[in-house]
Each structure stands twice: as C-alpha cells, then as structure tokens.
C-alpha cells in the first residue's frame, strides 16, 4: 500500500496533476477538471483531467476532458474555467505551443464546447483572444481565463505581467466569441499573477490570485471594469508552493461559493526514495463567504462529515510541557479543538500529529496567541533528509470578542490542512517514515493550559473510482 496517497483528498488515478480547472454543477452533478499529464507522474503534455461527483467528496474519474490539438500547434491545454449557458457548457483555457506560441510571449485563449458533458469540441474560431487585443500594451505570461455573466454580457479576467507587476486584465463579450479588452482590472505588487478568479457578494467582490506564493485575495467593489475600494488584502491559504496554490472557484446550484486549490508535491524534495506513480492532490473543497469586515470565511464542505468514522471525545484537558497522548493512532482523521483564549494567552499550544512513540518523528501544529500565529512545524516531520521541513506560518484571525478559538485539523496520509476560526488556513505535505508515526499528542509551554474540548474522528476513505 502507498502510505502517502491521500484517502479522502482528491487525487488523479495515476500520473501528474496540478491546478483545478473549470469546476461547475449542472443538473445536480458536479464537474471538476484539472491539469494532467496522462503518461507520467511529472509535469508535461498538459491535458484536462475530468471527474464528476454528487457531493464534492466522492468522485468518479472520466476519460480526460481535453487534449492538446497537436495538429494545430498546441502542446499544452493550460488552466481555465467553464461557463454554463443553458444546457451547453463552454470551457475556456490558455493554449500553449512551441516557438512563437510559448507561454511567456505567445499564449492564446481558446474555447471548447460540450452538451453531453463528456466530449468537448474546439470550434474553428479559435483562438478567441490573442495578445494583439492589447495594442501597444506589453503583457507577458498571459493566462488562466475566468468568465462570469454581467448585466451587459460577459466578462473575462486573465492573469499576467505588465511592467514587471502581476495584474488581472479584463475583457467584455456579448456572445462568448468576440472579445474586447477593457483595461487592467487590478495591478498588484507581486511579480506575477496566475489563476485570477472572483466571487461577487451583492455589491462586493472578492478577487483571488496566485502570485507564485501563498494564494491571496482582495475584497472590494467593482466600478466599471476595475476593482476599487479594497477593504481587505488577505491570504487564502499560507501553504503556497509547500501546500496550496492555483485556486479556482464556482457557484453551485444551491448558491454556495466553492473554492478548490492544488496541493503541490514539491515538498518531496529531490531524490525522493519512494517510487510513486502519482503526484499532486487537491485541498478539501471550501465554502466561501464574506465577513462584514471584508475578510473571507472558509469552511470545508459539510458533506465531508459523511466520512467521519469512530469518534474520540475529551473535555477540559489540562496540558503541560510533557506530551499528553490522546491514545489515538491514525494517519487519516479530523481533529476539532475548542480552546479558551485566556487558558493559553501567555503560552503556546502544540498539537503533534504523525507522532512516533520514540519521538523522532512528529509534525507540530503550533498555536501562539502572544505572537498571533498558527504554524505547522515540519522540522521533525520525517527522517528522510531531503524532504522539505520549513515551517508554514500564518496570522490568526481577529478575535472579534470571542472567548474560544475553533481549530480544525485534517490529516490525510501526507497532508495536513488546518482551519482557524474558519478564516486562517494552512496546508502542507509531510512524509513520515516510521511504521508507528501515527500518534496524536498535545503539549503546552506551561502547566496551566486547559483545552475545553477535543474531538477526533477517524476518516473513512472517499469513494474515488474510475468509470
């Protein structure tokens, strides 16, 4: 058995996967595409993999959705989105080739259409957008279309680089086929923006982007064809290349705003000694909402609770500098802690997962109110010398007068995904080696820390199968 393959996080059946692409729901069925190399567990020959689900938890893999049209000069079908228009779905994506069609200076935006949700035809009008639309405006690394409907037609945003800064560029169409450039939707401070997408909340909008580091968001309002009056500039997930990148989102038929993100495999490092026939996973699908202060709230989709198995419950646990062992051994579980802020105000609280009895391996989730941080300390996560062991650290949410902190930790074979008060999120990969690296322990910097409640659920494997 492959001890590192996740059991309830989405993975491709085999070989490489990266960015989630074009999710949508139609007639009760969820569709998810993803960047996929069908022949090797490494990046290259990028297709769109395709899977369907009734609940965003259990998935059936279909034959891949799109392949590069080699005869038309395509080498890769890069990331993009889907547009549901009646019973027809249009996929938009970035088409990449060789030479003049390279990703930096020769990208094009293409479309494919489908009505049976299994086959996708690329019309002869491709490409539907080219860099010539911008006139004298110089744009590099132009990619990852995201489309939504407005009162006067359709809007598309694309990521890229202008004047050495990452930007989101915006376009308009009446018919999804002819597009006009409307300007720079927002210009960032980072050197690149990838995978821009947005959610609207009444007159508010939240723009997500991936700047070759932790995924960020801006909450503000749309005025014409620009994002203005930014209220919050936040972080979607602090994992970045070590755990969470290239997010995308959609609104389902119940009106929920759902975001997907890719969990990269780079933390394996060089010369990973285990030969695995797969690479990459997706983070748990998250329901997104907007708080009054402009911050995002993010919670795993409730359907994940259907995978909860045996439950272990503890109340008013006193934690000190010696590790308190829960007695639970698992590498695939959910842990929910409620912590009184006053009880740990002057110290830190550490929850160790993947902990071995000998103490040589453990991954530590560290809550530090004094420093206002939550971190995943990987320094002792593995005895393998070349896997990544840097810490993932994020800022805690604003307390807003609440007495308790809610900390949710999802552990899945090689994934640690953390939610603090449904706002701060961290995701990363770890690769323990010892057979008994499955303990769950708590400790504190002093002898007076009390954890109000701890619940641990063994998580059953999701049903992820091939058609």
TrEMBL record:
What keywords would UniProt list here?
Glycosidase, Hydrolase
Highest taxon of source:
Bacteria
Q: Where is the Glycosyl hydrolase family 32 N-terminal domain?
A: 9-299
Q: Per its UniProt record, what SMART domains does this chain match? A: Glyco_32 (SM00640)
EC number per UniProt: 3.2.1.26
The protein's GO terms of the molecular function aspect are: hydrolase activity
Q: What is this protein called?
A: beta-fructofuranosidase
């Amino acid at each position: 058995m492959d001890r590192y393959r996740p059991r309830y996080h989405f993975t491709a059946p085999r070989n490489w996967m990266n960015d989630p692409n074009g999710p949508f729901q139609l007639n009760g069925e969820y569709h998810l595409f993803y960047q996929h190399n069908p022949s090797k567990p490494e990046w290259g020959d990028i297709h769109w993999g395709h899977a369907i689900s009734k609940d965003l938890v259990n998935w059936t893999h279909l034959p891949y959705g799109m392949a590069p049209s080699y005869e038309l000069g395509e080498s890769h079908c890069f990331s993009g989105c889907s547009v549901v228009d009646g019973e027809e779905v249009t996929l938009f994506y970035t088409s990449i080739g060789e030479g003049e069609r390279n990703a930096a200076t020769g990208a094009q935006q293409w479309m494919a259409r489908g009505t049976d949700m299994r086959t996708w035809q690329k019309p002869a009008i491709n490409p539907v957008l080219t860099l010539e639309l911008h006139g004298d405006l110089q744009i590099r690394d132009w990619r990852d279309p995201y489309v939504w409907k407005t009162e006067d037609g359709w809007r598309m945003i694309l990521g890229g680089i202008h004047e050495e800064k990452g930007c989101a560029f915006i376009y308009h169409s009446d018919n999804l086929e002819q597009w006009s450039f409307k300007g720079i939707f927002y210009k960032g401070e980072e050197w690149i923006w990838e995978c821009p997408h947005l959610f609207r909340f009444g007159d508010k909008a939240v723009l997500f982007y991936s700047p070759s580091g932790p995924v960020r968001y801006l909450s503000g309002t749309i005025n014409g064809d620009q994002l203005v009056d930014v209220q919050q500039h936040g972080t979607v997930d602090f994992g970045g290349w070590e755990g969470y990148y290239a997010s995308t989102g959609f609104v389902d038929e119940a009106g929920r705003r759902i975001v997907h993100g890719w969990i990269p495999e780079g933390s394996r490092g060089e010369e990973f000694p285990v030969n695995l026939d797969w690479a990459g996973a997706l983070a748990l699908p998250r329901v997104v909402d907007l708080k009054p202060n402009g911050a995002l709230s993010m919670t795993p989709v409730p359907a994940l609770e259907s995978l909860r198995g045996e439950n272990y419950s503890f109340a008013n646990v006193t934690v000190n500098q010696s590790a308190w062992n829960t007695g639970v051994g698992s590498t695939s579980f959910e842990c929910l802690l409620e912590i009184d802020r006053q009880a740990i105000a002057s110290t830190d609280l550490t929850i160790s997962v993947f902990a071995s009895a000998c103490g040589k391996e453990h991954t530590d989730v560290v809550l530090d109110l004094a420093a206002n941080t939550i971190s995943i300390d990987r320094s002792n996560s593995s005895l393998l010398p070349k896997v990544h062991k840097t810490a993932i650290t994020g800022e805690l949410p604003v307390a807003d007068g609440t007495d308790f902190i809610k900390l949710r930790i999802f552990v899945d074979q090689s994934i640690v995904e953390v939610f603090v008060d449904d706002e701060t999120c961290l995701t990363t990969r770890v690769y323990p080696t010892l057979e008994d690296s499955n303990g769950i322990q708590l400790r504190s910097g002093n002898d007076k820390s009390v954890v109000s409640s701890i619940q641990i659920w063994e998580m059953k494997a999701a049903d992820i199968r091939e058609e």
